[in-house]
Amino acid sequence: MSTGNQTRTRSQRVAALELPPGRFSAVMKQARRGVVLLRIGLCLATSLCLWALTQGWNPPRDFRTDRVPTRPLIARSSFTLPDEDATEEARRLARSSAVAVYEKNPAELLQLQAKLLSEVNQLVGAAAFEEVDPERWRAFSPVLAEGTPAATAQEQAEQFARFKAALTAEGAAEQFKQSLDEVFAPLLRTGTLDKAPVDLGANVERIEVRAAGSTEFGLVTPVAGVLLENVTSALQRGLQQKAPSIEVADRVFAWLRPRLPVTLRLDAEATRRSQQAAEDAVEPQLKLYEPGDELADAGDPIDESEGILLELEYQKELESRTFEQKAARSLAVLGMYLALFMVGGFFAYRLDPHLLTDLPRLVTLLLTIIAAVAAMLLTHPYHRMVEVIPLLLFGMTLAIASGQELALLLSAAITLVGVVAVGHDLSDAVVLLAAATGAIVVLDAVRTRSKLLIVGFIAAGVAFLTAVGVYTLAGQPIGPTLERGLMLAVWAVIAGSLMMSALPLVEWLFGVQTDQRLLELGDPAHPVLQELIRRAPGTYNHSITVASLAEAATEAIGGRSLLVRVGAYYHDIGKMLHPQYFIENQGQGANRHDTLAPAMSTLVIIAHVKDGADLARQRKLPECIIDFIQQHHGTTLVEYFYRQASVRRGSDPDAAEVDESSFRYPGPKPQSKEAGVLMLADAVESASRVLVEPTPSRIENLVDELSKKRLADGQFDECGLTLQEVRKIGDSLIKSLAAVYHGRVKYPDQETA
After folding, report:
1. Any idea which of 138-147, 180-189, 563-572 has the lowest mean pLDDT?
2. Sequence-distant (≥ 6) Cβ neighbours of residue 197 within 8 angstroms
3. Which residue, 57, 263, 275, 348, could crosslink 326 as a Cys pair with Cβ 3.0–4.6 Å?
4. What pTM does this model have?
């Protein structure tokens, strides 16, 4: 009879086999999960933010003042630099070329002309020479050459007759007046000046002539044309050409020459404005630099003037970059950032998985990375290598929050990002990373505030020695090298001091408890512990003993012993709500559980875990302490009441079945090695109290039995404890309990008086 199954061939059976997925397939499967995609997206967003902060599309400035270049810095693009010296020289020339401004006053010349006509009319109106005023006639007499005899009276009369005849001829008077107007016209237009202008810082060959009170541009004329010595010569020639006769021309010139006034007055304010306007009109002079021109020498610190040249060349280089060049650099920089995040993510998963699973903590870390890079970029322009301060702060923060290994890795990544962003070379990167490494390596625990200052001094020493060695090997001068090393040491000490102030903020942001904070929580004067002493003194004594046992056991496996000790102080604070239901707080009176059913007693006993966690949250205790409260019993069985319930079920067939899960603690199981140590120490301490004779062998059997029971129950499956570590914990507990229950000398009873 057929069963309906068909026999498959060998090839069909082979094809039906499903091999387990490979590593790549497993990774891709995990990557498609929503929570993983969210974290990948956050890392990608952080990479983009760093790309924008560091301007990943542009090359960095690989120069700054006080830096000593190891090679000459050459211009890559043509650019111009304002030449202050040339500009100042051009302005000086423009100022000296500006013409001086003079105001003219023609009134005196007009008055002189009118007086001349009046004097001539007085002479011409005389009937005979004898009627002429001798002084008036002498004023019209030309100056005789040296050695020439003076004219006689007869000769003067003849001269007067000729002078009068020339001016009284028909039309002569009108011609004479017209000639005067013509020869005075240039003087009225340009004015007269007694001497050329000097010490004005202006043009001494030409001047500008304006009417008095005018602000409009006037007549620019050569200085030579207005000087009295030149004006008088031109006046004489004009009179000789235009006067009715030579006799009249010579005698009129003889009268005018000593009476010609100076009609031009220097306007100092207008001259200053003219010079300033000429100076302002000068365009800034530029100096051209071509590709290949040397901008800074090798071996000498970059000074301020060279820094200006390099900055202009850098800006010109940025302007000349094409879209393809920017895109290529952007992809390279962004790819580097993503690679760093990938490496950091894998190491973080191995070193501190909770960092990736706890989304708020991951976001805090990413924001800290962005803040550290931004701080390095902001501080870099102010002083050389001052960016070591934010780098050290980042490294110390991460060492406190996530451990030294991850801090070293991410500090190296941040150093690489900062070096690429600010344009440091390899030697600078080595020095920065050495300083960060020196601080991180010695920052294992922070039990005192001064520890951070000590870390700063150690990092300062490492930075100084590394800087001196690296820069000396790089060929830097010893003077700048020592100065740079000392500044790095100062920055490191400042970073340690700043970290002392920032420690509470780091604890709050990352939810970590430093040893300093744990010492504060472990103070017996803490309000929660004081309340525990008052309400449940037996529980407090039990907690103190468990703390001592757990601390020694944790030290044996290299865990955080202080954290375990403080966690032990608080692990049973939930018992203070119902202290009488726990044996260590019961006196000689009746046991309250005698009146309760085993299931009810179990509920009361188990409730102290939830009550303790609620009380801890109410009193703002940190999560690491709450974890000890919730995990110190794990999911263990309340064996005493479970056995009671089983006995009652055996004696009463009609009773309900005993559900073992109802007699177990809600958990969770210990999630850390320290919680696993506390669980075992708590169980051993409680059980050892009922030993009749706690000899070392009995204590050893007790510890071994409880350790195996917890292992068999799977209580250590999630905390990472190995069998070797469990054995070390057991050995430590045996030694500690043997010391507690050591034998004592029996003294004879004292006799009463």
Report:
1. 138-147
2. 100, 204, 207, 223, 266
3. 57
4. 0.66
